[in-house]
Design brief:
Number of strands: 11
Order of helices and strands: EEEHEHHHEEEHHHHHEEHEE
Helix content: 25-40%
CATH class of the largest domain: Alpha Beta
Radius of gyration: 19 Å
Number of helices: 10
Structural class: alpha+beta
Largest sheet: 7 strands, mixed
CATH architecture of the largest domain: 2-Layer Sandwich
């Protein structure tokens, strides 16, 4: 077999309180990357479905550039052709650039005589993240590759035991927020008190995962550093967040830099009820809305 197809799931970078150091993997939505082994040590992107404007030039494409790096560093005598089916909208805050890169790497790795570890594949994926956003952060690539919820600590990926009873509600308003623009919106400096509050919330959230303490999770799921600056970039976010608080969810945040949003729900029924409220908000704004409800995806990218 010289061709495989990989499903690379969408992700929530930052996971609210963990700017650039935490992420979570979604079910049901993601990219499909078909990787074919070819004799020449080059990368060819044959087609991209659903990704208008994404370049076919492998040097300018996150999936292509990571495989070029793989061929170069691993001194491969063969190369790869790619067909990419984008299930993650551009500029949606759902880790689309990371998914394509991770999908390509997982597929290519299956053709290596000695397959590389997740740790090594993650290193290669960051070449794509740097191309996409100018910063080699792994809060999308790591959960996409490893699955589940992850914490990045001292160059290590730590899996967090996310509570099994929590349902994820993901909404994607048809808006675009570019990662570069979202980073420019951040303040250059923060007050010590803000940093202390954020540290308390981050540590509280991590502890809530290990203790399966949903009430501690609810108390901790508030970003005081990044979200206040980025919220204005996503129309309707503040209204959705207020509804999530009023309806006693476990938390609501931007997915990555937005405009997609994640709500941590106590049950599938709660998720369905809240979705109706969110749909009403965006209907009045004449903004189309996609939604997904499910549990956390603990598999990550996989050959299908």
């Amino acid at each position: 077999m010289n061709s495989v197809t990989v499903f690379a799931p969408a992700t929530c970078g930052n996971l609210c309180v963990g700017f650039d150091i935490m992420g979570l993997c979604y079910e049901k939505v993601g990219d499909k990357v078909t990787v074919t082994k070819i004799d020449e040590a080059v990368v060819k992107i044959e087609s991209i479905i659903g990704g208008e404007g994404i370049p076919l030039d492998p040097q300018k494409n996150t999936a292509g550039i990571v495989l070029l790096e793989l061929i170069k560093i691993e001194k491969l005598s063969f190369g790869f052709s790619l067909k990419i089916e984008k299930g993650i909208a551009i500029g949606s805050g759902m880790g689309g650039s990371a998914a394509s890169a991770v999908g390509a790497l997982v597929g290519a790795n299956s053709f290596l005589e000695k397959p590389l570890s997740h740790e090594k594949l993650l290193e290669y994926s960051l070449v794509g993240e740097k191309l996409a956003s100018g910063s080699a952060h792994a809060d999308n690539a790591a959960p996409c590759l490893y699955g589940g919820a992850v914490l990045l600590s001292n160059n290590e990926v730590i899996s967090l035991p996310f509570p099994k009873e929590v349902f994820l509600l993901l909404i994607h308003p048809h808006l675009i927020v570019k990662t570069e623009d979202a980073r420019k919106a951040l303040k250059p400096h923060y007050f010590l008190g803000e940093y202390i509050t954020q540290s308390q919330n981050l540590s509280g959230f991590i502890v809530s995962c290990f203790k399966n303490d949903l009430e501690l999770m609810k108390k901790s799921f508030f970003d005081v550093l990044v979200e206040p600056s980025r919220a204005p970039l996503t129309e309707g976010f503040k209204e959705c967040k207020q509804i999530a608080i009023t309806m006693d969810t476990l938390g609501h945040c931007l997915s990555g830099s937005g405009p997609s949003q994640l709500t941590l729900c106590r049950s599938e029924e709660q998720a369905q009820n809240i979705l109706k409220e969110f749909e009403s908000i965006y209907s009045t704004k004449n903004i189309a809305l996609d939604s997904y409800i499910g549990k956390i995806n603990n598999e990550g990218a996989r050959i299908i």
